[in-house]
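Input set for joint prediction.
Command: fold jointly, output tokens.
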Amino acid sequence: MISQHEFVVATAGRGTYDLGDDIRGLVLASGVVTGICHVFVRHTSASLMLCENADSAVRQDLESFMQRLVPDGDPLFTHIDEGPDDMPAHVRSILTRSDLSLPVSDGGCALGTWQGVYLWEHRLASHRRKVMVTISGESR
Amino acid sequence: MISQHEFVVATAGRGTYDLGDDIRGLVLASGVVTGICHVFVRHTSASLMLCENADSAVRQDLESFMQRLVPDGDPLFTHIDEGPDDMPAHVRSILTRSDLSLPVSDGGCALGTWQGVYLWEHRLASHRRKVMVTISGESR
Amino acid sequence: MISQHEFVVATAGRGTYDLGDDIRGLVLASGVVTGICHVFVRHTSASLMLCENADSAVRQDLESFMQRLVPDGDPLFTHIDEGPDDMPAHVRSILTRSDLSLPVSDGGCALGTWQGVYLWEHRLASHRRKVMVTISGESR
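tokens >
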């Protein structure tokens, strides 16, 4: 069986947003007991990550790392019409990812103890980000 | 139901190649209405990416970024028998990805407006790259 | 049909560990002929990669690259309580990946000739890493 839903994350600009509750709710509602939960962000300047969820300093350090690796306003870039953070947002998205597949086991997402699912907004301004979740597998 | 096909992308060396038409055609032919389209490149020196498809400068800037991050002929590398672009191609593949899972909804790939699917050839010379597409889900 | 199993990789610290035999065995045992094999590591400081499997120098060069890109003890990081290799392990995991989906064709993983599946332990100390494999598709 397959269950598919889309929801919107209203971001307040660059930063990470915990999708755990949304995803857990959709997996539970789907009735899938064993299978795969696929999460997909329909944009190229926001992405997904599985990240340590206990200490928020981890996500802040990831943000610092990305700002150093792909600085806003980097003179390397020619695609600059939409602002100094636009091309870095595309690079950051490609270095992380737009899709994520999680195992579903015993009716829930079989994440590790410290694994959280986050949407990473890479643009400085707030955006509305569409996330599509497709859960497939066997029900009871 | 599951539908699986392999096709070959004949690349003209380093650069990006739009797979959108191939993938859209295979999804349509599969008859899957709701599900997942899995795309896989069977190589370790070419990869896949979901990238902004409106302005080709985005892909050129990504190429510039990768050349700066993983320069050809980097003296760090010891695996150099196949040329100065070989080890960088492996690194670039691992920083991007070999597999991609896309949601299928209403019989088509539910990509965002600006999302294109590209094969990224990382070697300087032309190659024949095998891409396997597996579409699974519910048909009408 | 769906088959799901978890196994543990006992790592001897930072380095790569070939998962090919484990995965091939599980795909064969599942009886799935056409489908997807999903591999998932339930941690945020170890990851997965598809990498050239012929010359181990490729994996050593990847390790060198990551040590240069995300050095242990980097003063950029504030999440340092668990040691100088902890935050780099999180960054390295996010630049690579926690999940991997492989095509299953003719009853086996349809990897390219030179593609190997590796777990990449990013911490310096040995760890026990849980890997969950979910194989779905059509059987004979």
